[in-house]
Amino acid sequence: MEQPAFLFSTRGSSELSKKIAEQYGQDLGKLNIVEFSDGEFTPAFEQPIRGGRVFLIGSTHQPTDNLMELLLMCDAAKRASAKSITAVIPYYGFARQDRKDAPRVPIGAKLVAKMLMSAGATRVMTMDLHADQIQGFFEIPVDHLFASTIFVEYIQNLGLDNICIASPDMGGAKRANTYAKHLNADIVICHKERKVANQVENMMLIGEVEGKNVILVDDMIDTAGTLAKAAELIMSKGANSVRAIATHGVLSGPAYERLENSLLTEIAVTDSIPLKNTSTTKIKVLSCASLFADVMHLVHDNKSISQRFVI
Questions:
Q1: What predicted TM-score, i.e. pTM, was given to this entire model?
Q2: How do residues 6-44 score in pLDDT, each as one tens digit?
């Protein structure tokens, strides 16, 4: 007998989950979350899931309640005798804590991985991790999807000539090179120096951008300080225009104001994280729902998903 599939959503990713469920071809499952007066909460599945493949959809962006809610749902599914539990995490929070880069600090990305496995997750599906090696923190299968399958089509539809791909930092050079090869475009790299987190001290450009339409590629935008400074630097070097694409629009602190006041023509992000400010004129949101729904179908049918890793 075919193993049934059930889709459930955390509250913080409800809009994206509805789109994924629609693309998947079935409704979200019934889930009730009871809140206590002190803010504590507990999720309860309101339908049997015994022996089924359960997909729990939820990005773990801030507040941390989003992560805790997903963990509790994993535990509830395990105790309800689900046969398999796939944590579908479009944005994997705490991923920037992927190594011990200073004395006496945690490796938060691994801690989250251990918590997900302990809670009962048997598989993880995510998109554009901040560092690829985070997959190695898990002892269960990890489907690491790439938003490039969404963004490449977007770039091609812009109809720009003389395109140049730029990385806002050295760490993103590999990602930018992948886009540049596929689009047959030149590549430049912005080298930045930081003294403290979220604050760029100095930046220089490696490569030529004069007369080119530049597209900055990154995995996330947090305070937008790096992007705004990179755009200013690129335009000062004679570029015709500069745009940005980033998978995850974290957009905290002064991010929206910085982007509105920046020299960026447009910023494209996915809906892995819901926008806090929907009135902005420069940010374009591209949905990742069909990508996740497609891969979820392939996983449920025990088919190869390798074609979804290719731009």
A1: 0.93
A2: 999 999 999 999 999 999 999 999 999 999 999 999 999
What span, in angstroms and rounded, lies between the C-alpha atoms of 163 and 249?
23
Pairing between β-strand 142-145 and β-strand 123-127 as defined by DSSP bridges? parallel
Q: Rounded CA gap, 290 and 22, in Å?
A: 9
CA angle 136, 98, 200 (to 5 degrees): 145
Strand partners, 87: 56, 124
Catalytic residues: 192
Q: Are 20 and 292 in contact (CB under 8 A)?
A: yes
Question: Ramachandran region of residue 296, left (φ > 0), alpha (ψ -120 to 50) or beta?
Answer: alpha
Give 146's contacts (C-beta < 8 A, 6+ positions apart).
Answer: 127, 128, 309, 311
Task: Retrieve residue 193's tokens.
Answer: 């120096």
CB-CB neighbours of 297 under 10 Å: 15
